[in-house]
């Protein structure tokens, strides 16, 4: 049985309504102020139903405030949040069709895994047998059946995440909100659980809105990346669009692996893997000195300082590097194809 068909079975017995239909989510000029601080500044955004959306940006840029306003955990200072055709500004969290999964998973330490998952049904007054049955069905979906009677402290980080996911999904949400859901995990587990999140989102067909400061995580997961800076949206696009055509200097620097180069009175981004190194005084490049060489396995990062002072990063494949190795202090020529430059907004 696929997750999606199990999901339908789960929510259709005992006269239960069909699962919530996936719905579009829209923010219209949404603003959040805390006293003098403008945390979110007129953010407008439309997330089509069934989208994996990552809100990406540095700490303090307004990601969590945005998520909390969608969830109903924070008042909206101005603007509207719409789910489907309903303005949800004044609805309590449980009436919005959203569910939230927190960074620390916020599992109740004294409740068993099954009771954690069933918790919101208990609050809603669902009978004991019915809620245990649905909790067990969800635990089956996230492959945690055999841990149903354990306490959260008896689970690994990845297992806790699956329980938190089951607990959030049991309310049958239209939109699942995830606040830095992978940050408590070690790097190996993070990559594995990231793939699981993506799989569940695809199979349930609802929107996931996932807050992260990791560009790598956003690139790996998102259909739609929303890059935020200082309470505003800098750019919205697919991971490829954002990576290949960053709109602003901020996005180019934040996404990383780009050089930001001022030339001809304008500013360009050029991907680090598009830089070519040649012997000094080559006709098609500028003089530069190697300031750092970092071996990365499949590639080698070479940091350079051009004679005009511009710092550059070149990422070479291991084999290209091996054909013409350089070391710190070497003089080289660095260049690129004009077509590989991408102009940034002022
Ligand atoms: P992010 O999730 O991107 O780290 P936040 O939404 O948490 O950003 O915060 C955005 C801004 O709002 C920051 O300047 C932060 O200090 C401020 N802020 C967040 N929550 C509160 C609060 N409860 N009271 C006052 N300021 C807050």
Task: Walk me through the structure.
Its main location: membrane. This is ABC transporter ATP-binding protein. It comes from Jiella flava. The protein starts with a helix and ends with a strand. The protein is elongated and about 80 Å long. Residues 12-19 have low confidence and may be disordered. The protein contains ten helices and 18 strands. The protein has two domains: 3-97 and 172-244, 3-Layer(aba) Sandwich (Rossmann fold); 257-343, Beta Barrel (OB fold (Dihydrolipoamide Acetyltransferase, E2P)), CATH 2.40.50.140. With 346 residues, it is an alpha+beta fold. A hairpin with a 2-residue loop joins β9 (224-229) and β10. It has a six-stranded mixed sheet with strand order 6-7-8-3-9-10, with helices on both faces. The protein is 29% helix and 31% strand. α3 packs across α4 (128-141), α3 packs parallel to α5 (157-169) and α4 (128-141) crosses α5 (157-169). The protein binds adenosine-5'-diphosphate (ADP). Residues 34, 37, 39, 57, 59-65 line the site of adenosine-5'-diphosphate.
Q: Are there runs of 5+ residues with pLDDT below 50, and where?
A: 12-19
> How do the helices and strands follow one another from N- to C-terminus?
HEEEHEEEHHHEHEHEEHHEEEEEEHEE
How many domains? 2
The gross shape turns out to be: elongated
List keywords for this structure.
single chain, 346 residues, alpha+beta, Rossmann fold, OB fold (Dihydrolipoamide Acetyltransferase, E2P), 2 domains, six-stranded mixed sheet, five-stranded antiparallel sheet, 29% helix, binds adenosine-5'-diphosphate, ATP hydrolysis activity, ATP-binding, ABC transporter ATP-binding protein, nucleotide-binding
């Amino acid at each position: 049985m696929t997750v999606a068909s199990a999901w339908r079975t789960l929510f259709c017995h005992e006269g239960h309504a069909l699962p919530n239909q996936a719905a579009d989510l829209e923010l219209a000029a949404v603003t959040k102020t805390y006293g003098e601080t403008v945390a979110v500044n007129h953010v407008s955004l439309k997330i089509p139903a069934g989208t994996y959306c990552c809100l990406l940006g540095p700490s303090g840029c307004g990601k969590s405030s945005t998520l909390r306003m969608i969830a109903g955990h924070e008042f909206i200072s101005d603007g509207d949040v719409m789910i489907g055709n309903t303005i949800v500004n004044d609805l309590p969290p449980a009436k919005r069709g959203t569910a939230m999964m927190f960074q620390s998973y916020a599992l109740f330490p004294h409740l068993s895994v099954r009771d954690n998952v069933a918790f919101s049904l208990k609050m809603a007054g669902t009978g004991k047998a019915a809620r245990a049955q649905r909790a067990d069905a969800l635990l089956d979906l996230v492959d945690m059946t055999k841990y149903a009677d354990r306490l959260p402290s008896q689970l690994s980080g990845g297992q806790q995440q699956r329980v938190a996911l089951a607990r959030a999904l049991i309310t049958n949400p239209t939109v699942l909100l995830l606040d830095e859901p992978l940050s408590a995990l070690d790097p190996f587990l993070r990559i594995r659980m990231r793939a699981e999140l993506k799989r569940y989102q695809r199979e349930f067909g609802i929107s996931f809105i996932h807050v992260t400061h990791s560009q790598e995580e956003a690139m790996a997961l998102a259909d739609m990346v929303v890059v935020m800076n200082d309470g505003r949206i800098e750019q919205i696009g697919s991971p490829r669009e954002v990576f290949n055509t960053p709109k602003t200097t901020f996005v180019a620097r934040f996404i990383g692996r780009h050089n930001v180069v001022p030339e001809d009175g304008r500013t360009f981004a050029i991907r680090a893997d598009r830089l070519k190194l040649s012997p000094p005084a080559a006709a098609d490049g500028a003089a530069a000195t190697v300031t750092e060489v970092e071996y990365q396995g499949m590639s080698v990062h070479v940091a350079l300082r051009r004679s005009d002072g511009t710092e550059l990063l070149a990422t070479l494949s291991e084999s290209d590097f091996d054909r013409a190795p350089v070391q710190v202090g070497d003089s080289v020529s660095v260049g690129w194809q004009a077509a590989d430059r991408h102009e940034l907004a002022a």
